[in-house]
Amino acid sequence: MSSTNRLIYLPLGGAGEIGMNAYVYGYGPKGKERLILVDIGVTFPHMDGTPGVDLIFADIAWLEERRDRLEAIFITHAHEDHVGALGHLWSRLNAPVYARPFTANHAARKMEEQGNDPANVNVTQPWPNRVQAGPFEVAFLPVSHSIPESAGLVIDTPAGRIVHTGDFKLDVTPVLGDPFDRALWAEVAKPGVKVLTCDSTNVFSPNPGRSESTVGPAIRQLVERASGMVVATTFASNIARVKTLAEAGRDAGRAVCLMGRAMRRMIEAGVQSGILDDFPKTISPEEAQAMNRDQLMLIVTGSQGERRAASAQLARGKYMGLTMAEGDLFLFSSKTIPGNEREVLRIVNAFSEMGVDVVDDDADLYHVSGHANRPDLATIHQIVRPQAVVPMHGEHRHLREHVKLAAENGLPGILAPNGTMLDLTGDTPRVAEFVETGRTYLDGSVQIGALDGVVRDRMRMAMNGQVTVTFIIDEEDEPLGEPWVEIMGLPEKGRSNAPLSDVLEADLDQFVRRADDKTLADDDKIEEAMRRIVRQSAMNEIGKRPEVSVIVSRLSA
Amino acid sequence: MSSTNRLIYLPLGGAGEIGMNAYVYGYGPKGKERLILVDIGVTFPHMDGTPGVDLIFADIAWLEERRDRLEAIFITHAHEDHVGALGHLWSRLNAPVYARPFTANHAARKMEEQGNDPANVNVTQPWPNRVQAGPFEVAFLPVSHSIPESAGLVIDTPAGRIVHTGDFKLDVTPVLGDPFDRALWAEVAKPGVKVLTCDSTNVFSPNPGRSESTVGPAIRQLVERASGMVVATTFASNIARVKTLAEAGRDAGRAVCLMGRAMRRMIEAGVQSGILDDFPKTISPEEAQAMNRDQLMLIVTGSQGERRAASAQLARGKYMGLTMAEGDLFLFSSKTIPGNEREVLRIVNAFSEMGVDVVDDDADLYHVSGHANRPDLATIHQIVRPQAVVPMHGEHRHLREHVKLAAENGLPGILAPNGTMLDLTGDTPRVAEFVETGRTYLDGSVQIGALDGVVRDRMRMAMNGQVTVTFIIDEEDEPLGEPWVEIMGLPEKGRSNAPLSDVLEADLDQFVRRADDKTLADDDKIEEAMRRIVRQSAMNEIGKRPEVSVIVSRLSA
Lengths: 557, 557
Known about the structure:
- The structure is a homodimer.
- Chain A is α/β, with parallel strands linked by helices.
- Helix content of chain A is 31%, strand content 26%.
- In chain A, helix 6 packs parallel to helix 7 (239-251).
């Protein structure tokens, strides 16, 4: 009976952060909905909250438990926060993947890298072509963004049409890839749209967004005027920008060299998938070494100050045999993502010490955003005229503001952060239930839960240092020698100017000498007492309470 | 013979970062100069580079070795990056301290807190009053900044006059404290100035700075229109701003409550030192609990998202019995210092989840900087007309840009980052030598060198996790039991799905069984082998190479 079917929406990631996008839609009887997943991305770790972690994914446990109901995975575009987790998580979901050619190229590589069959990725042509996935009919709707072949999704369901924007901007002259096509979006909207699930990234940017094509002249002028070597960085995936930079170099009579694996790979993928046919000729780093500085332009990875990327390596000294020198120019054709400031400024200051002139986006000349600004969001609201707006792709503050913006345009909006399952069936979306969501860390080769305590323990060691006590007890429950202390990440000496380990060992030894037989027979008691003694003794001596491990070895009779 | 005397400048901190200011001047025969120190501040640690560290100071070893030649310490103003290290480092320098009354109030407290006699702090009246310090005559020259009673220093030496700006802006209506007095600065400059040592913080800000008095109307309007509780944060030391906020609250009919220790302390110091006589009446947090939300305005600490400050605690739930609620307003009357974005945004999003409206300084309405912008720096160059400009108080990029700015104004500038000793004796400053400088960490109660490796070890544990192996060998060099593994900060299971510690112990045990007598007799060999085995085995199992401690306990015969 169709009246018992419902249409649901559940963000597992991306609605509460900018990153790790993972949105579920479902249709069917309650608890038996057939499901599709839109995007499966990563977010990046930071030393200050996730030290040693390699990547962060949305926790997909909810979906994994229902994988028999998962019809398909759709990838809107090839940015890491939309496709980066595919290879790592696909085997837990095991559903066909659909994407446009350039995106599919990346998705297939992600699959291969993690040992999954890339044939599970289906190359899909855009609207009006449709993919049938259970009760859903899904079409890729071309839209402009900062990477080629981005798409919104038109998701037709028995309960009505959903438009899921993906990441987008309203760029009619995007240099490369699909311009924003207002008529096409209006055509899609015409039959009526139930819900617009909409990018919220730039809801706080008050002015209309600028086109990718506006940065060309300023970049060209800057490169023309440079006297030393020119080095520019941007997101490797912003192929249009890389092309603009390369053309500026070529036209200023410079040889162009792409540096950094991601940079070369993206351009290759662009050529392979047929979207990039007239990229300027490039030279290899080896050839670049032989050139005069004023005849050279490097385009490098690392616009966010990533430690291992080309820009950071150049800032530390040498990369692929090339070094920066006084009079060179370094251009950030990019914006620093909030949170990456320290890393980026470290590079800027290192270049400053070398006498390199650094130009960044402070004046808004050399970069434009790939996301729709506040007035652009209002425009898309008006073109699509949905029954309701569901903001996604934003921190909580963005989602909340986007709901307000929708209201300003007379549209009901609903705030649905990660884990909020919406029932979209009726005239207005309503919250159906709250699902437990979270984050999964890729730590080395292991996936661990954010709340498993592993990273918390590492942070505690980083904050407090670590003391390990070893203590041997013989067959008769008598101490064999004295407790032994090993300290890690703590000052060698404190108040008394004696080695910290000696002070701790003396206090522990005193405890052992005074301990009665009952205590010495009980490992738990020993451990508890020793931990307390070490923490208190360290507090007196160095003003810190370290993490303490006590290892009692009991020789068996 | 006076011709062999020289005038030197040596930044130990502050020229290469914004923070931990410590500038040395000297006059006398080479290597026997009599010295003064200007400012002795802190910089703040971050989890991503200095986990567990409490404060960061400039390494003053160079000055400590020459403390018999140190005549005095001058503190320009009461910001932590100028006075914060005084109490911690004073006993290593042991020289009289001079400061204007409000600053001296803080300096004396810093001394007392660390067990030093506050009587070493001399309350000093400003220009034309002078302090004799060996060959130096030093006067405090009032100047506007974001804290009351800021001062530049007029340092007269036998080789000429130096003007050391301290932190400053050109504010003729600063709400509280000294307005910028162009005539006074011109008077000081009249006899000729050899060197202008000058604040560089805002050299990249292209527009003239705005007065503190410009934020009042916007703040007033915002508070008047608010319907729920209003909570505002700013730097506690910006007493003028705190006063503006409090007056806006009072005038909107709200009771004002100051929250956070630093906030209450600063206002007390302002009243004590006589610079703040008409601050609105405040109520206690207990009284605030009894008020209606729309009759209440809190002014709280924590504008930079500091974990323990009032704003972060409100974001996590409750502070002093008060909580935020839907419809409340939270105002950041402050700028986020680069590097603190993640912490601040965490708070903003937490408030968003509570339904609190957050207003920040994006629109430049509710905050102005305390530092001179680029055109203001040009103005001070022109008023002082020094023979040379020495940029200070900035990262390397700021200092370098400031030298360029000086050149634009026809003034020779010289880049002197931390450790660069300048000889100022001649017509143009020149580099005399490079002195080894660095950072000292306050870690608990211990001062450790940044390069001592303590924090590096902590970061390694945070990145890689920690494995401790204990292994007991008996009197005959035979293993007593099997090696025992304790893991910290690592996933419990990896590839083989067996507990990681079991896998490591099995591999270690295999090594022990195969080890020959010579190996078992040699602790170093055992440790090296076991470390290698653990790292390799963990790499196979979990894709990480942990830090490893091996503790071999050898029972003595």
